[in-house]
Amino acid sequence: METSAPGFTKVRGMDILARNNVTVQGPEGAQPMVFAHGFGCDQSMWRHVAPDFADRYRVVTFDFVGGGGSDPAAYDADKYASLDGYRQDVLDVVRALDLRDVVLVGHSVAAMVGAMATIAEPERFASLVMVGPSARYIDDEGYVGGFAREDIDELLESLASNYLGWSAAMAPAIVGNPDRPELGHELTEAFCRMDPDVARRFAEATFLSDNRDDLPRVPVPSLVLQCREDVIAPMEVGEYVAEQVPDSTFVVLEATGHCPQLSAPELTSDAIGAWLEGRVAA
Amino acid sequence: MLRVNATFLTWTGRPLEAVVGRRLVDLLTPGGRIFHETHYAPMLRMQGAVHEIAVDLRCGDGSRLSVLLNATLTRDEHGAEREVLVAVFDATERRRYEQQLLRAHDEARAAEARAMRLARTLQQTLVPPVPPRVRGLTLAATYRPAGDGSQVGGDFYDVFPTGPDEQVVVLGDVSGKGVDAAVVTSLVRNTVRALAVLHHRPSSLLAELNDIVGFHETDRFCTVVVLRMRREPDGAWRVVVAAGGHPPPLLLRPGSEPVEVDVNGPLVGILTDQEYTETELRLAPGEVLVLYTDGVTEARREGELFGEDRLCATVGRLGAADVPGLVAGLRDEVVTYQGGVTHDDIAIVAVSPTPDVEPASDREAGPDRQAGPDPETG
To answer: What ipTM does this complex have?
Structure first.
C-alpha cells in the first residue's frame, strides 16, 4: 500500500485498489483529495490538475470499473446499469484506503456520483467539487437539461457507429507528434479505453439519470465549476445544481468545452485551490 | 472553425459565413456532440490526434452527412494549443456498410445465444437432471457435457419403472455430437422405454434396439448398458445386466475391490441381427453398481488415459456408503485429471439398495410411486 512521491505510484495489495486501478500520491497523512472521472474517459482526465494538489493533499485517482485500467473481470452489467454501481466504486475506494475528511472532486457524471457518495456516507467527506455537473440531461417540465430523449437515443447509436473508437487497439496507431516530441512516450498509452458494450451501458446510466432529488441532500460544502461554453452541461444546468445544493459556491470558468481540466487546467486548479483555501466566499 | 475548403462547404451545403467563426461541434448532431465532447475531445487533447471519429454533420438543408474525422492538435513552441487540423471524409457508403455489419454482428450474437439455449434445453430433455426417487433404491447420477456445454453431447441416461418395485436403468453413448447425435440419442432413449415394456430380458431388448438403430437412416451407432432391477422382499435387488459395446458396470461390495460385471455384446446399430448376453447378480444394501461412459476412462492428461485402474482405485477409495458423494467425487476426479477441460461427455449413474424402508408418509409424497405400502406388491 505504500507509495512515494514524485509521480503517480500504483497502489497494490488490496482487491479494490487493483480493481479500480487506484493511484495515490502526495504526503501521507495529508487531507485526502479523491478525483473521479466522468463518462467517456478515465483517470488520465486529471493528469494536468491532480498533480497540482499533490504537494499538500493526499491525491487519489482511480478508474471506474469498466474503464481505463480497471479490472475487466470486476464488471457486472447489472451493478453498473445505474449510477448506484458507480457510487459504490467511490465508497469502496474511500473505504479501502480508509480515508476521512475527503475532498471529493467529480467531473461530469461523477459530480452526481460524488454527490450520491457524500449523501451515503457523510462522515467520510469534507467537501465536494463538481466540475461540469448536470442533475438531468434530458429536458423536463420546468427544467432545462439541454437534450431531448431522441438526442440521447442518437448518442447511443453514435456509440455503436464508433465501435472501434473505444477499443484499446486504437491509441497506439497514433504515431508521431513532431510538435511535442516530449509526448512520445505517452502516445504509446491508450487513453479512455472502454469496452463498447460497457460504454453503452455507462452512457445509458449517465444520460438517462435524474439526480435532481439528491441535490438538496448533499451534506457538505460544495463548489460548482461551470465552463462558460459547455454543450454537455450548459450554464443554466450548472446554475440549477448550485441553487439546489444547500451549501454551494458557483464559479464560472472562462473555458470552453466540457473538460476544463484539459482545456484550461491552470484555471481549473486555481479555482479549486482558491475555494478549498477559503479565498472564495461560500 | 477558422478555415474550411470549398468541398466542405459543398458537402454541408452551407455558405462560408455560416461556418467560419462557429465551432465544429455546433455542426454535429446532439448525440454526436455528447460523444465528441466526452470522449474524443479529451483524447485529442491528451494524445494530440484522433482518427476515424464517426459522426454525422448537420447540413444547411437539414439533411445529415455521415463523415469520418481525423483531427490533429497543433501547439506553439511553448506547448500552448494553436489549432486543430481536421480532415473530413465522406463516409456515407462506409457507414451504411458498417451498420449492416453491426446488425449482422448483433444478429449472429443473438443466434448464437439462441442456439446455446436450444442445445441446453434439448440436453435437459435427453438427460433427466435429477434421477427419480425410487422406493428402496438410492440413485445418483451426473452428466457433464464436453467443453463449454454449447453442443448437445451424445451421452444419456434414463431411469424408469416397468412395474411395482421394478426399474430399468439405461446409460448410453451415441457416437458423435451435435444435432444428428441428439436425434439418435432421442430415438434410442424413447425406443428403450417402449422395448422395455415388450421385452422382459435386457438381452432381447438390446437385440431389438440394435436392429432399430441399424435400420435407421443415421450413420451413427451407440453403446448402451441396460439394467433391469427387481426389488426383493429382504431389501436387496435382483439385477439383470446387458451391454452393447459399452464399458461394463463396476460392482463395489464392502471389503473388496471394485470388480467389473462380466458382460458385453456388440455395438448397437452397426450390424443387424446380433445376439446379446446378460448377467444376473444380487445387489444387497451397502453394495453399489456404477455405470459410466467412456468419457471417464478415456479422459486424458498429456496423452495418458484415466483408465480402468484409476477408475477402480477412485471408486474403491470413495466407497459405497455415500452414493451421491461417490458419483460427484468420481466426476470431479475425472474433470480435475483433465485440468478442468473435458474433451468428451461424462455420464455416471450409481445405484445402491437402500437399507431401511422409508417412512410411509414420505413414500406417498412421490409422484412416480408405483406401489402402496402393501409389501405384497413388492
So the answer is: 0.78
Q: What is the dihedral of CA B307, B313, B317, B320, to 10 degrees?
A: 80
CATH fold, domain B6-90, is Beta-Lactamase (3.30.450)
Q: Is A154 among the domain residues?
A: no
H or E element that contains A223: strand A222-229
**A270 catalytically annotated:** no
Name the residue in chain A with its Cα closest to that of B52: A165
Averages of pLDDT over runs of 10 residues in chain B (378 residues) are 94 93 89 86 87 87 91 89 92 84 87 81 68 90 78 82 93 84 86 94 96 91 96 95 96 93 94 94 96 93 91 94 94 91 89 70 40 36
User: Has residue A257 been placed in a domain?
Assistant: yes
Phi, psi of B304 (to 5 degrees): -90, 135
Please indicate whether, in this complex, the C-beta atoms of B25 and A39 are within 8 angstroms of each other: no
Do residues A26 and A8 make contact, with C-beta atoms less than 8 angstroms apart?
A: no
CATH code, B128-377: 3.60.40.10
**Where are the domain boundaries for CATH 3.60.40.10 in chain B?**
128-377
4-23 in B: which are within 8 Å (CB) of A? 23
Active site residue A108: yes
Angle B110-B114-B116 from CA coordinates, rounded to 5°: 115
Q: CATH code at A18? A: 3.40.50.1820
- To probe the interface with A, which of B22, B46, B51 has the most A CB atoms within 10 Å? B46
A166 belongs to a structural domain = no
Q: Look at residue A147 and tell me if it is in a domain.
A: no
Q: Which of A108, A163, A186 sits opposite B38 (nearest CB)?
A: A108
Active-site entry in A63, A89, A92, A230: A230
